[in-house]
Every structure is written in C-alpha cells, then in structure tokens.
Amino acid sequence: MIHGPNLGLxxxxxxxxxxxxxxxxxxxxxxxxxxxxGLEVRCLxxxxxxEIVSAIGAAPGSVQGILINPAAYTHTSVAIRDAxxxxxxxxxxxxxxxxxxxAARDEFRQRSLVxxxxxxxxxxxxxxxxxxxxxxxxxxxxxxxx
Length: 146
Known about the structure:
The protein is of the alpha/beta class. It has a single domain, classed as Rossmann fold. The chain contains five helices and five strands; from the N terminus they run βααβαβαββα. It is globular.
C-alpha cells in the first residue's frame, strides 16, 4: 500500500471530504483484511513524488501487487504513471484507490493520469475504498496464480 502526499494528515485534514479515519486506522484495517485474505500488506506513506516512484520501482521481486492512493499526484504525475506502467509490464499489477469520489470534485481532480495503467480504481467509499481495492487486488493476484 502506497499512500501519497498529505495522507498522513487523515483524520484531521478536511474531514468533511476525507473523513475522520486516521492513516494508522486504515493501515491496521488493511493489514487485518490482508491476513484474512492470506496476504501480507506493507504500508508506506510518502509526500515526495520521487520517493513514491522509487517505492514503485522497488516492487518487482519484493511484492506481488500495489495498492496506491497517489493523492494529489493522481492528477499531475507522469512519473508515477510511468513507474506503474513499468512494473505492470513486469507482472506487478496496481489498483488505484481514493477516499473521495474524485469524479464529482473540482474539474482538475476529475482526471487520473494513473488510472490507465492500473487494473482498477475504487473511489468514493471513504476508508472503505482501501478495503474494496485490496479485495480487488487479491482477486487479480488469485487469477494470476490460477
């Protein structure tokens, strides 16, 4: 699980948009669901675009898939898009998640640069988006292993 910029402020940051669930609570829920699904979930949050690109680049050989909320970089980062495309070509699928329904927000937030290289996107269900995204990623990984 890669969390993008400002997500470390969850629970306090614009709760009317992002809810009151903290990042630590989301990570704990992901790890618990991962255990139920037979997956180990590692979570990291980075504010810097380059740090996120590096984490994605390190994925092949160390993880089976990526769950990612690129946050504001969703709409601006060709570098993150290219990194996700590169690792997808190496057999590491990604699923994009968002707390809010980005398609219903500001016009500049309605376009995701990463969606086209992710196997799926879950948005608008608050913290539940992460759990739905993990279930989707688990299903993709199950299909790959079948």
